[in-house]
Amino acid sequence: MNYRIKDISLAENGKKKIDWAEVHMPVLVNLRKRFEAKLPLKGIKVAGCLHVTKETGVLIRTIRALGAEIAWCGCNPLSTQDDVAASIAQEGISIFASRGVSNEQYYDDIHSTMKIRPNITIDDGADLTVEMHNDGYVQDEPVYGGTEETTTGVIRLRAMQSAGKLKYPVIAVNDAETKHDFDNVYGTGQSALDGIIRATNILIAGKNVVVAGYGHVGKGISKRADGLGANVAVTEVDPISALKAKLDGYGVLPMNAAAAAGDIFITTTGCKDVITGQHFGKMKDGTLLANAGHFNVEISVNDLEAMSVSIKQINDNNQEYLLKNGNKIYLIGEGRLVNLAAAEGHPSEVMDMSFANQLLSVLKLANLKGSLSPAVYDVEKSQDQEIAKAKLESMGLQIDVLTPEQRIYLEGFGEGT
Q: For the chain, which terminal residue's Cβ has fewer other Cβ atoms within 10 angstroms, N or C?
């Protein structure tokens, strides 16, 4: 077996976690049952670069059950669950991932995964896709296309497309409604707060929580913090998003003003240098900092280190920075994705829909076999509807159906007042 993991002896515990997740991911599991007899991915090589969690384990099992040859790596140095990685390796799948890797090892793992010469890539943050382009793998083997799981990755890929650098088609799974309206909002909203609480056991009620960014992730975190009794304020650079936050009942102010008022700061923007040295000096003693964006660039750790006289490890996911002014600031999960660095990531129930989108997008790319032009493509509305309907059915819920007369009315224009 070809793998690089922390410890294969952890496999049994990882298997229990993946088995547990399967029970809570009925849409993806039912898709596996529907397609596995036909082996639609037989002869297809798939390289994946996603957070190695129990939910990802269910996706990997499903892709393999449909006939694909697989190689996998983690997409964040602190998000790999080592027991899950061990279980995947024990099941005979090439995987290169462990928690706490260096930047060099992180990219080595990506390059090891690329050696499979994939026909299809599954990415979260676009690091695999970018490295495929940088290393010339696109020319060496027919790449039918790829998928992208997160907002940050879609932004990077659209930039590549605009610059004329994208060499194979990518389906923006993140932009499916059954992904970003659920995974980003409910998944990150719950799991980000879960990570902060696990790392600190702090009481959220009564705290001033500053959420940087009011996209889908920011909305979810704001709602969950509000529900736990926090006073929520939002910082934004987009006037429309700021207005939405205000009308949703939250305070809106610039980061320079928020810096002195906040007790907990959570960044969600996908942009760099959201919180920097100019803000740290204004913060209260005991302020907590956490990031829910994909990359660890939103909170300037370099500035924080430069302003500190000492750094103390409180626990695995909580570092204390003693500033020169005597105040202490606490950074959760090294400024990396707090919901995966300090917790277990999104709940299985919400990843069920995200990974169902991944699977159906992979099947589409395999079926089209390179006939799509290099570009970033949206998930089709029919796929979104299919997944939403399947999720409702798994919850025992039914909805109304349009009558033929209603369809004619909605599709026409003749009837007025």
A: C
d(CA 353, CA 307): 43
Record the tokens describing residue 195, joined without a space: 């990570």
pLDDT (0 to 100) of residue 415: 83
The CATH number of whichever domain residue 366 belongs to comes to 3.40.50.1480
Give the residues across from 233 on adjacent strands. Answer: 210, 251
Q: Outline where DSSP puts E strands in 247-346.
A: 251-252, 264-267, 287-291, 308-315, 318-323, 328-332
301, 326, 341 - which closes a domain? 341
Q: Residue 97, by phi and psi: left (phi above 0), alpha (psi -120 to 50) or beta?
A: beta
Q: How many CB atoms lie within 10 A of CB 64?
A: 19
pLDDT higher than 90, residue 282: yes
* CA–CA dist 412, 54 (Å, integer): 47
- β-pairing verdict for 94-96 and 120-123: unpaired
Q: Which domain holds residue 243?
A: 188-341
Same domain, 216 and 322: yes
Amino acid at 146: G
pLDDT at 139 over 90: no
Residue with structure tokens 């659920």?
Answer: 182
Handedness of CA 32, 34, 37, 42 (dihedral sign): negative
Residue 1 scores a pLDDT above 70: no
34 and 131 share a domain?
Answer: yes
Same domain, 42 and 139: yes
- Phi and psi at residue 345, in whole multiples of 5°? 80, -165
Report residue 332: phi and psi, to 5°: -95, 130
The stretches of 201-307 forming alpha helices (DSSP H) are 216-227, 239-247, 255-261, 277-280, 301-306
